[in-house]
């Protein structure tokens, strides 16, 4: 480990930042233009990083090119949504075909039931499901369903959890959140869960949890705590909701199949729309049947684009051509091996970084008191080496990433640590 990551950290970070500014005038100009019409030039907070984020012009397979003409291997994969890479032929074919058939036909489509059939077959916890337009919306609807069906107000979530733009619990209940009655518990804390149910059991409509916190730094849930939550919900009549918006890729049946724990409801999003905006929520038939519009007491759930033809058909192509059980298992194994190899490199270089995660989704963390600065420096230097991942350390492998790319990343890490 060089001094750059320890005693000379501030100077090294200043130099890396200056080099980044000098190397990326096109991205700087793109932000300046955007600033005139969007606050801070930004419309998606998670993309922001100082001094300005890269503006990416194009992508092919697992490679992207920024507006200044630099090429990168894409290890971010659209924060897990871009699992296919950028030019998957079956998705291109499906989208072009459906567009030629006509879109916005104000009707049911041949595609939505077909997509729902495949998803229900994969996730036994979703006996019935409904489509939405984002993971955020899927979670909002799942929570609303739980509150209406149970007639209870309280929702248990977890510190570090992220379920969407208005369901964000990185530092407790955020001011931007919807005004539900949230109890924000520590993650992986059996005692806190028991205490919450002891104090408030009859008021709890739902427990909403990620089997691995994604935005919260790729922290995997303790299976014993998940099982405890399963038991507490069963005992009290609260609904256990797994947010598998990220973790659904962990196997054909998501993380829940790997864990062997079946929630009452599941939410998914990201890649099941074949790269287009997508969300879905589903659950036991007795819960979801409340949406049956032939019922006099039906719960309404409208949405112009809930079943839009492009997304439905792209999702169908995605499942049939790319998200096969074999491909997902192989991606999981590739991710586990890559994370282990990365941790071995970091340990050998003094342990100033550590990688957490599950399967193909992982997060590099700095360690020690200067952790954030160290990670920033690593990020600048890896970008200069031609590797793209989130400034906060998130890596999400996509299907086109193979041994050449992961080996290249590991070699670059060694160079950066030794430089
Ligand atoms: C676990 C989880 N839930 C929900 C969401 C929200 O999904 P969307 O960005 O599609 O609204 C995300 C997005 O990153 C997520 O990671």
TrEMBL record:
Xref: InterPro entries: Aminotrans_3, PyrdxlP-dep_Trfase, PyrdxlP-dep_Trfase_major, PyrdxlP-dep_Trfase_small
Keyword Transport attached: no
Cofactor (UniProt): pyridoxal 5'-phosphate
Keywords: Aminotransferase, Pyridoxal phosphate, Transferase
Pfam families named in the record: Aminotran_3 (PF00202)
GO molecular function terms attached to this record: pyridoxal phosphate binding; transaminase activity
Keyword Transferase: yes
Family per record: Belongs to the class-III pyridoxal-phosphate-dependent aminotransferase family.
PANTHER family membership: GLUTAMATE-1-SEMIALDEHYDE 2,1-AMINOMUTASE (PTHR43713), GLUTAMATE-1-SEMIALDEHYDE 2,1-AMINOMUTASE 1, CHLOROPLASTIC-RELATED (PTHR43713:SF3)
Protein name: Aminotransferase class III-fold pyridoxal phosphate-dependent enzyme
Organism: Pseudooceanicola albus
């Amino acid at each position: 480990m060089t001094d750059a990551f320890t005693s000379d950290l501030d100077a090294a970070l200043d130099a890396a930042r200056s080099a980044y500014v000098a190397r990326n005038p096109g991205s700087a100009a793109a932000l300046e233009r955007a600033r005139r019409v969007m606050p801070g030039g930004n419309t998606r907070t998670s993309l922001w990083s100082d001094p300005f984020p890269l503006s990416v012009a194009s992508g092919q397979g697992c490679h992207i090119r920024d507006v200044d003409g630099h090429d990168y291997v894409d290890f971010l994969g659209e924060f897990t949504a871009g699992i296919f890479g950028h030019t998957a032929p079956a998705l291109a074919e499906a989208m072009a075909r459906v567009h030629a058939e006509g879109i916005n036909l104000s009707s049911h489509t041949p595609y939505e039931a077909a997509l729902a059939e495949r998803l229900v077959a994969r996730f036994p916890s979703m006996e019935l499901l409904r489509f939405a337009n984002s993971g955020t919306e899927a979670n909002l609807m799942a929570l609303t369903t739980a509150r209406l069906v149970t007639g209870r107000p309280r929702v248990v979530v977890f510190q570090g959890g992220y379920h969407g733009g208005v369901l964000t619990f990185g530092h407790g209940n955020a001011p931007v959140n919807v005004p539900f009655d949230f109890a924000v518990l520590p993650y992986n804390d059996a005692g806190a869960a028991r205490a919450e149910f002891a104090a408030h059991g009859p008021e709890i409509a739902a427990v909403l949890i990620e089997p691995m916190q994604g935005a919260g730094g790729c922290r995997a849930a303790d299976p014993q705590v998940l099982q405890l939550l399963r038991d507490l919900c069963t005992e009290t009549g609260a609904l256990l909701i797994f947010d598998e918006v990220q973790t659904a890729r962990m196997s054909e049946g998501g993380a829940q199949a790997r864990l062997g724990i079946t929630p009452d409801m599941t939410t998914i999003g990201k890649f099941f729309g074949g790269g287009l905006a997508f969300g879905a929520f589903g659950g036991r038939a007795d819960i979801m049947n409340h949406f049956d519009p032939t019922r006099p007491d039906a719960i309404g759930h409208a949405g112009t684009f809930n079943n839009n033809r492009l997304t439905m058909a792209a999702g169908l192509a995605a499942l049939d051509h790319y998200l096969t059980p074999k491909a997902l298992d192989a991606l999981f194994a590739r991710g586990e091996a890559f994370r282990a190899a990365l941790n071995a490199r970091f340990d050998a270089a003094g342990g100033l970084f550590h990688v957490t995660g599950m399967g193909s989704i992982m997060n590099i963390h700095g360690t020690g008191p200067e952790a954030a600065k160290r990670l920033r420096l690593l990020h600048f230097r890896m970008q200069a080496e031609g590797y793209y991942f989130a400034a906060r350390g998130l890596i999400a492998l996509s299907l086109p990433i193979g041994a050449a790319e992961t080996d290249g990343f590991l070699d670059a890490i060694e160079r950066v640590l030794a430089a």
